[in-house]
Every structure is written in C-alpha cells, then in structure tokens.
Q: What sequence folds into this?
C-alpha cells in the first residue's frame, strides 16, 4: 500500500480561526514532510520530520505549527493565517529522507 | 544549492504523439524522481531513478548521473497524460528540490 491520506480535501478559514490539517501513512515510513504549493509553481518544502523529530524547518512563519504524534501521523496546525497563505498543502512520506517520496492528494486551503 | 532545470516549460501534443522531457541538475544526486501532477493537484510518483533506465508502460526514464541529466519519454500520448511533469532531486542531506516543471497539454 503506497497511499498517503490527507484531510480535509478543502478548507476555508478566516484569519482569526484555528484549524488543523492531518496526514496519515501506513507504509512504515520514518520520514514525513509538509509542502506548500502556489498556483503554477512547484511544491516548496516547509517541514521535515525524521523518526518523529523535526529535522528541517524551512524558515516557516510560526502561524504554521507542525506536530508528529506518532510514526504514522503528521499534523499541521494553522492559526492567524493571512490570505497569502492560501495554497495547496501537500504531505509526503518516505522510508528515509533520501528515498522515494510519496505524496498525498493535498488540502486546498483558502484564507479569507 | 543545487539547481534543477526542466525543458521545455510548455508542450502541446496531438494525441498519439511521442515526447521527451528533460531535467538538468547542477550537482551529483542521491535521489531523482519524476512526478506527474494531474489537474486535481495529485502528485503521482512516476519513477525513482537516480541512475539508469526504467520503463513503465508507455513511460520510460533515463538518468545519466555522470552528465547530470535525466529524460522522461512519453510514447503514444493520451489526453489523460495532460498535466505538469516535475523532476525533483535530493543531494547529500538537502531535501527534495523541484524543477519548475513542464506543462503538457495533449489534445484529441
């Protein structure tokens, strides 16, 4: 099973809301990732978790807060977002950080 | 950091035609992947190919690591092949770096 699942598929939130994006994989992978993708651009890395520890934070604003509760789950907590944060948020996983990454279907986020 | 350049940026094909997409990278790599992003945004893993040649149906890929390029071949294209094709690489401890993609439109 090479599936990564993400919920919700779509999310509309106001600038004062708090919401969370969820990602799950059952491939036994030990590396998980969050990416942000704006229209007509490639995905941009936000965070990397390796063995459930945050290993890379690509200078992401603190209004995005990642969490890895266990080896299968990855959350992205959102608070006080700005309209420019509207984008497709993609989760991925891999067995190790140099191995092939598998992506979930993404969450389309609109911040009003 | 490593530079990843893809060409062409845009490509329009008649259904049934063949095409070659190119990815050049500026440093040695541990990992190279080709992805297809469909119109709904799903990134589909096509190939994990840091070196050598692989084939999967109408698609094949070749990476010549010593010359720092990879090619993706699409034969007998279909309208469902439309979308954006990304090349992405890992070098050392650097996370996956994406090229800007090739936007493919296959018309019936």
A:
């Amino acid at each position: 099973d090479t599936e990564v699942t993400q919920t919700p598929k779509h999310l509309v939130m106001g600038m004062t809301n708090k919401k969370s994006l969820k990602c799950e994989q059952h491939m036994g992978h030990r590396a998980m990732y969050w990416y942000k993708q704006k229209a007509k651009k490639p995905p941009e890395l936000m965070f990397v978790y390796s063995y459930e520890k945050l290993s890379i934070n690509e200078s992401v604003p603190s209004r995005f807060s990642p969490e890895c509760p266990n080896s299968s789950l990855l959350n992205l907590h959102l608070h006080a977002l700005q309209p420019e944060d509207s984008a497709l948020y993609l989760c991925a996983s891999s067995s190790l950080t140099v191995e092939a990454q598998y992506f979930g279907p993404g969450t389309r986020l609109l911040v009003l | 950091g490593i530079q990843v350049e893809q060409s062409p940026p845009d490509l329009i094909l008649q259904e049934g035609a063949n095409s070659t997409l190119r990815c050049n990278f500026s440093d040695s790599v541990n990992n190279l992947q080709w992805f297809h992003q469909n119109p709904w945004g799903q990134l589909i893993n096509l190939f994990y190919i840091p070196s050598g040649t692989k084939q999967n149906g109408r698609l094949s890929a070749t990476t010549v690591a010593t010359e720092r390029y990879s090619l993706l071949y699409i034969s007998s294209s279909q309208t469902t092949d439309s979308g954006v094709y990304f090349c992405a690489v890992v070098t050392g401890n650097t996370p996956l770096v994406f090229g800007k993609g090739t936007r493919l439109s296959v018309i019936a």
Observations:
- Chain A touches chain B through 22 residues (CB under 8 Å).
